Amino acid sequence: MRKIITTMWVSLDGFIAGPNGEMDWIGELYDEAMGEYQFAFVSSADTLLLGRVTYQSFAGSWPHVPDSPTVSEGEKAYARKLNALQKVVFSKTLDSVEWNNSRLLREVNPADIEQLKQEPGRDIIIYGSATLVQTLTNLGLIDEYQILVHPVILGAGKPLFKDITDKVKLKLVNATTNPSGVIVLSYQPRAESASTH
Questions:
Q1: Which among 39, 56, 131, 156 is least surrounded, fewest beta carbons within 10 Å?
Q2: What is the tens place of the pLDDT at every residue in 95-120?
């Protein structure tokens, strides 16, 4: 069965964006190691799940990157991988999705997600899309969280996890420290023991 793997940047104090949605602090620490991580992440998958905000951001830029004369060959190669993925966009407000290989679903239906995981192919990934990650976390449908902890304290902002209904116990399966000081922590849900309390 395919796994759903999410990657998310976070400040040391647990925020994914500043109080006004600022994300400039992420780019400040982007180095070669981060580029290699992102390329390997997108190469491991053939399907991308997106919420509306992330979809509109990605669809507005990545389709044009391979033809841009101002970006590096590495970024073009990454963009081609991203553009080729199957994309499932969750939105109640979008009328249509134009990015190639995209389909629109109005709501997160656990049966649809389980069916997607049963299909043959590579892993299913999520970039950002915090609300979608929170929804899938509450449904117990995420198989791995890759958290990119940035060495910055924002003091306030948009939290990584909010409105989580039940405690989720995780186990650390990998940790990598990049030269920039960003630490990539990979967690998988811990299987609950069968004992009763």
A1: 156
A2: 999 999 999 999 999 999 999 999 99
